[in-house]
Specification:
174 residues, alpha+beta, four-stranded antiparallel beta sheet, three-stranded antiparallel beta sheet, 9 strands, 34% strand
Amino acid sequence: GVMAGSVFYPVRTLAADDTAVLHQFLQSGMSEDSRLQRFMSPMPKVPESAAAWLANRDGQRRVALAALHPEDPTMLVSVVAYAASTEGPPEVALATADEFQGRGIGTNLLRMLATMSLAAGESAWRGDVLADNEGPLHLMAKVGDVELGTVSSGVRSVIVTLDPKRLYGTTVEY
């Protein structure tokens, strides 16, 4: 699990049978603006197929971790994931429910995922963020060096070279 302040959030991996709980997290835990920032397009209603695709992880090439609500372990509060690619580093994604943002949950979960990524031999991630969304860049800088790529249609590509010194087992800043 992860600690955020004095609260412990259990953590577990996600799998295909988590589609319904992931759909609930994306639809009810995140505002339309948060979904826009995460999916880079308006999404007033999250299709169940999107949740199914995100939940479909094999635990090796496609890994997802979820922080659970401390009082209701059937409820997700934050999710981080990466998916290996044949065209370069794995793609990383993260989302935290609106009411839980700013507590360090996403940061600590991202550190756990980075540790697992390095253990699997993946030392870098790639991702896309809206060009005006600085939040994910700030979070990714907590696990590695962020290289800003080009901007196309308002979306910036980034590469994160993971830095083991910024992960668990070292001093953690909040």
